[in-house]
Amino acid sequence: ELGWLAARLGAAWLSLVFALIVLPSALGVSLGISEAYMWVLVKTLEWATIRIQKGAKKPQPQMQKTAAANGIIERDETPMEKEIAGLHRMEFHFSDIFYFCRKGFEAIVEDEVTQRFSSEELVSWNLLTRTNVNFHYISLRLTVVWVIGVIVRYCFLLPLRFTLAAIGITSMIVGTTVVGQLPNSSVKDYLSEVVHLTCSRILVRALSGTIHYHNKENKPKKGGICVANHTSPIDAIILTNDGCYAMVGQVHGGLMGIIQRATVKACPHVWFERSEMKDRHLVTKRLREHVADKNKLPILIFPEGTCINNTSVMMFRKGSFEIGGTIYPVAIKYDPQFGDAFWNSSKYNIVSYLLRIMTSWAIVCDVWYMPPMVRKEGEDAVQFANRVRSAIARQGGLTELPWDGGLKRAKVKDSFKEEQQKNYSKMLVRNGSVG
Amino acid sequence: SVSHSQITRLYSRFTSLDKGENGTLSREDFQRIPELAINPLGDRIINAFFSEGEDQVNFRGFMRTLAHFRPIEDNEKSKDQNGPEPLNSRSNKLHFAFRLYDLDKDDKISRDELLQVLRMMVGVNISDEQLGSIADRTIQEADQDGDCAISFAEFVKVLEKVDVEQKMSIRFLH
């Protein structure tokens, strides 16, 4: 009897999910449920912010929202030449070390790079335990709201999102395998697009994603290369929610591998074996062939090579910019108030990351499609990469850093230190003679 | 004295550098900061945090060393004439700098020690002979008692016209 009841409930639950979420995803329409949820959420968080500000014992200093004001110290940007040579010319002085010393201590207290590999600090608490670092107990009402929030997120939203994600991934695998059986034709391409779009939409709803796309007229076209800043593995889903791309990446094992093998039958994604990835010429050659075929979908690449915390754009690997073709830059900026999308891969593995995402309030982000760019005459790949990077950083309101995202794990190259030593040496000695 | 919010932020920074999560920092933890790793004097600066024979520094030691870089204006607020000299006084800042040069901690900067520090700062760009001349001339100009080494008193004299307070200070924003 109980089993029969559970089955009935389960069936009712699934049909609700299908009717309200999956079907509209397939048709590309919205029932407005997400919008209503977001409205309630925004109002609640605004109320919470006001309560926190009222409850604070001391008057809070005006906390500006820019990352610069969140800094701990005032950094002295006087260049080495001015600071050291200003005192004397062409000779060593004991006070020369003060410059290096202070720079060193400034870096110890606060440096530009390591902070990008951990989540952005919030200006005001968003009722998630995980962000409650600097904020303290304020009032009973706030705590009650927080408890309700925990129940809603873990007991209602998490199972719902998990169901949706399961449906989305299963449909993706089954759908693309079925479409993959068809002979190559425009019908196959059309059906492949439908399957990919529908499954992306389901997955976005599985994250309670609210995405604003700007400048849709600049959407990447066939035969082009779409380039975006990287914050999380869900960046790809955010983009495929609105268009179809050929993914580029390494072949994985497990569930990801199954998805990769299924999808490549329906649509020419570019998956590389691990051994192939090491051969840069091979990679460039394959991508060049793909881009040359104007009937193929635009490829999607994240040139930073690793996830950054969405406050800055780090160095772009030049490989993507050597392929040729038209680059369609895209800037993605998440709103951290509703949920932290950044994947700190040194701290969390993919499963705990997805769990955190699914128990956040929502994923809210802006996507800006930017006008296409091509390499100019006399511009090399590195300069072109930097030009595209600046454009993306400016559009998304992110800072630009000349550092390599690889510094998350690897040591910094000695050449930077050698450059500083060279600059200092120039001040001591000119033309090989001692001053 | 340091404000509560400054201590909180520095503690937060300390824990984010502490990858081993054991409440202390090792030399590797410091070297993970790219801007410090490319500093020619990076290793000497890191060394300043660790006491003789120790490889770990706790938060207290971290703050003590950082305290040398607080601006001197902070002391105006708490004029305690009878207490010990604050770590960020001009004299203690100079002492800190002196210790960066005095590699063997014998309270003298010898020609060798000066050469080693110079070599760190210039890398491979200057020859041994030229560097030797620079070291010789520097010691000659500062050495007053003729022992071909620089004592702390001679060091202070050489730097008397330099605005040590401004050059060896870090300003906190709030």
TrEMBL record, chain A:
Under the heading Pfam families, the entry gives:
Acyltransferase (PF01553)
Main localization is endoplasmic reticulum
| Pathway membership | Lipid metabolism; Phospholipid metabolism; CDP-diacylglycerol biosynthesis; CDP-diacylglycerol from sn-glycerol 3-phosphate: step 1/3; Glycerolipid metabolism; triacylglycerol biosynthesis
Q: Which residues cross the membrane?
A: 12-33, 135-156
Keywords (alphabetical) are: Acyltransferase, Endoplasmic reticulum, Lipid biosynthesis, Lipid metabolism, Membrane, Phospholipid biosynthesis, Phospholipid metabolism, Transferase, Transmembrane, Transmembrane helix
SMART domains, alphabetically?
PlsC
Residue ranges occupied by any Phospholipid/glycerol acyltransferase domain in the UniProt entry: 224-335
Q: Where in the cell is it found?
A: Endoplasmic reticulum membrane
What are the GO cellular component annotations? endoplasmic reticulum membrane
Q: What processes in GO biological process is this protein linked to?
A: phospholipid biosynthetic process; triglyceride biosynthetic process
- State whether keyword Membrane applies: yes
Q: Which GO terms describe its molecular function?
A: glycerol-3-phosphate O-acyltransferase activity
Q: How does it sit in the membrane?
A: Multi-pass membrane protein
Task: Tell me which family the UniProt entry assigns to this protein.
Answer: Belongs to the 1-acyl-sn-glycerol-3-phosphate acyltransferase family.
Protein known as: GPAT3 acyltransferase
User: What is the species listed in this Swiss-Prot or TrEMBL entry?
Assistant: Penelope pileata
TrEMBL record, chain B:
Subcellular location(s) of the protein: Cell membrane; Cytoplasm; Nucleus
Q: What GO MF terms are annotated?
A: calcium ion binding
GO BP terms, alphabetized: protein transport
Q: Where is the EF-hand domain positioned along the sequence?
A: 5-40, 89-124, 130-165
Entry-linked PROSITE patterns: EF_HAND_1 (PS00018), EF_HAND_2 (PS50222)
- Record keywords: Calcium, Cell membrane, Cytoplasm, Lipoprotein, Membrane, Metal-binding, Myristate, Nucleus, Phosphoprotein, Protein transport, Repeat, Transport
Return the InterPro entries for the record: Calcineurin_B_homologous, EF-hand-dom_pair, EF_Hand_1_Ca_BS, EF_hand_dom
Question: What's a GO cellular component annotated to this UniProt protein?
Answer: plasma membrane
Give one Pfam family. Answer: EF-hand_7
Family classification: Belongs to the calcineurin regulatory subunit family. CHP subfamily.
Q: What is this protein called?
A: CHP1 protein
